[in-house]
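Mods, move this if it's the wrong board.
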Amino acid sequence: MLRHLTRRLLQALLVVAGVVALTFVIMRLVPGDPAVAFAGPKASPEQLAAARRQFGLDDPIPVQLWNYVRDLAGGDWGISLHTRQPVLDDLYLAFPASLELVGSALVIAVVVGIPTGVLAARYKTRFPDFGVRMTSMLAVSVPVFWLALTLQTVFASNLGWFPVAGEYDSSLDTSSPLTLWTNITVVDALITGNWPIFTSTLHHLVLPALVVAAYPAGVIAQMTRAALIEEAGQDHARLERALGFGETSILTRFALRPALNPVLSLIALVFAYAIVNGFLVEAVFNWPGLGRYAAESIRSLDTPAIAGVTLLVALVYVLANLVVDLLQGVVDPRARAR
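Not the wrong board. Structure tokens:
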């Protein structure tokens, strides 16, 4: 297990090094001069020169790359051109809301996707299987912005069951101020016992979380079904049938654990996808997360912020894959040998 962990850590470090190099290249390829964006279009030549010195733009490219890597390792991700704050501080404020949304969506996707995949495999080629496949195909195919607008129109605007937008009722900031610990609102409200904000956040979270969960739930259901059907055709499953075990018992007691191996790999992929896909959902539901910050950064050609968002998403993806690799080693020891 230690050798498996060491190998995966080295692979993760190589991926991170590649992402760091890529973000550096992105910062140099984005049109516009960061010095002009920071100092302003009416800045004097002296102000532009000072800005260029501040960002190290006059140094040779290898020196700029070295300084960039050194600053990243030291926690200096640059200064945002539109907020004038450290990029890492901005990400610390924006990312928890996105993590709250995507984390809730993935919980929904796993809770819905795996059981429905088991159901489809159990009743292969029959009506439950047909229903699951059609529903999952629809969930995977429907445009996320269309689904967001549809749910918002039907359940928020027309029926009034859920709020239209926002993370929680802003009036609660006065009546029930929240003490921040993790910057994840629902977690902080739960830790501090702030039940008005906790319930309000859950209420606001339902629609956007369902939208983000649609694609992962559909993919997880399809993968679970396919993996279980493959496992049900193995020699061990035929032996279990000969011993008198029923089909449901074979699927849930013997086939599900090895079938979870590819499903876990898929969860890591859809997690990173859900973060990026959540940008559109955050825009529709006015969710105060990473999507809003990324959109503002792109509009203002804020290269340090754009690079920071890119690097953060990549690091989250690498970390998710690393966690999944370790879980695979626990669930299926055969995965350690790969």
